[in-house]
Amino acid sequence: MKCPQCVYTNPDGVKFCLSCGEKFIKNNTQEDENSLFYEFAHYVDMVPKFERSIEPKFQNIFSRVFRDHSELEAERLFIVGTALTTPKITEVTETWPKPWLFARVFIFALLAFAGLYIGVDYFKNVNFIPGLIIVGSFSVPLTTLIFFWEMNAPQNISFYRIIYIVFIGGILSMLAALMFFDILRNNINPITIGIVEELAKAIIVISFVRYRKYKYILNGLLIGAAVGAGFAAFETAGYALRALLSGDGQSLYSTILWRGIFAPGGHVAWAALTGSAFCRVQGENPFNFRMLFKIKFLRVFALVVLIHALWDTPITGMFPIGQIFLMLCSWVVVFLLIRAGLKEIENKKTMLNVLPNN
After folding, report:
1. At what angle do helices 321-354 and 267-282 cross, to 10 degrees?
2. Whether residue 65 is found in the same domain as residue 92
3. At what angle do helices 267-282 and 129-151 cross, to 10 degrees?
4. Do 295 and 253 share a domain, yes or no?
5. 262 with 306, same domain?
6. Are residues 16 and 151 in the same domain?
7. Do 143 and 9 share a domain, yes or no?
8. 232 lies in which domain range?
9. Which CA distances in Å does 325 have to 99, 107, 195?
10. Which is nearest to 342 in space by CA: 98, 61, 54, 41?
């Protein structure tokens, strides 16, 4: 199937162009409705139609965390987002999802970290130290990322793509930050740190979401969280290694512990806010640099820079009260943008329903 937009040759059966993201319009949707994806999804009862709430109450959002879930349910989650398994926007429910897989991922990571800790601290085996640093650095950022992935109601981004963005986006954003720091080497302070690191992540996040394939606010949240998770994990691994090389083993554990506790309200949430703000101003329009100067984007980006700067200033010296307050501020905005993203889907569905059938 050749794309009319970019003339890329796609395999038969895809719903959008694998190159540019152009949506293909089909006259016959029976094949889609009877696809293996929908049969499997309905079999495990995971198509998000029931048990979802409109109000963002914690007891509603996290109500499925402590329920029993089968491996089939988890497997169903991991097959979404491809060209063959992305649901149509009219099939997406615009009410609040109820994520649960992120909690399982955190437990798995915690068990792995506990095993590595025993290997290092009890058996004194230095071969466990690299694993301890890697697992300790990635556990909470990856867990938070899984939460954003489950909250991505359009289900149009595959987990393979997310892992790609974590590693490539994470390292590219760190390299971009180093370039900016090198330019400002004589003027490093909390404000410049906030500007540099958030600008570096913003550049990489926008480079991923500027294509029309990722046009929803929730897409921006997810892709931003992926870049932020990579940045946070790589940064924590570096700080943990520094602590180890200082000769203080307890400093290694405390570095991993505290950075893990604050990771959800740090780089992951900040980059997610930047990505969602950009998708909010871009919508389905082609990328234009003027979008970066729209007030809806600038006010969120400025807030992210401000929170980051305050995070590194003596104002938050009452550790950890200051960081906890800033985390809460970040997540209040996150939930506001999730609500805006779900409202965007509702409006999109309404618009499609009122359009005459061709």
Report:
1. 30
2. yes
3. 30
4. yes
5. yes
6. no
7. no
8. 43-354
9. 24, 26, 20
10. 54
User: Looking at the structure, do residues 164 and 63 belong to the same domain, yes or no?
Assistant: yes
| Number of domains composing the chain | 2
Q: DSSP assignment, residue 120?
A: I
292 Cβ partners below 8 Å, 6+ apart? 206, 278, 298
* C-alpha pair distances (Å), 115 with each of 95, 132, 192, 243, 250: 39, 9, 39, 21, 17
If asked whether residues 104 and 180 sit together in one domain, one would say yes
DSSP characters over 57-116:
-HHHHTTTTTS---HHHHHHHHTTTSTTTPPPGGGS--SBP---HHHHHHHHHHHHHHHH
- Region of 37 (left: φ > 0; alpha: ψ -120 to 50; beta: rest) is alpha
For the chain, state the CA radius of gyration: 21
DSSP letter at 123 equals: S
The total number of residues shown for the chain amounts to: 358
Q: Are 83 and 17 in contact (CB under 8 A)?
A: no
How confident is the prediction along the chain (358 residues), in pLDDT tens digits per residue?
A: 677 766 667 776 666 665 555 666 554 444 444 344 444 444 444 444 444 555 555 567 888 898 888 888 888 888 888 888 888 888 888 788 889 999 999 999 999 999 999 999 999 999 999 999 999 999 999 999 999 999 999 999 999 999 999 999 999 999 999 999 999 988 999 999 999 999 999 999 999 998 767 889 999 999 999 999 999 999 999 999 999 998 777 899 999 999 999 999 999 999 999 999 999 999 888 899 999 999 999 999 999 999 999 998 866 456 688 899 999 999 999 999 999 999 999 998 888 876 655 4
Same domain, 157 and 103: yes
Measured distance CA(23)–CA(16) in Å, rounded: 4
Residues 6+ apart with CB under 8 A from 166: 142, 145, 226, 227, 229, 230, 233
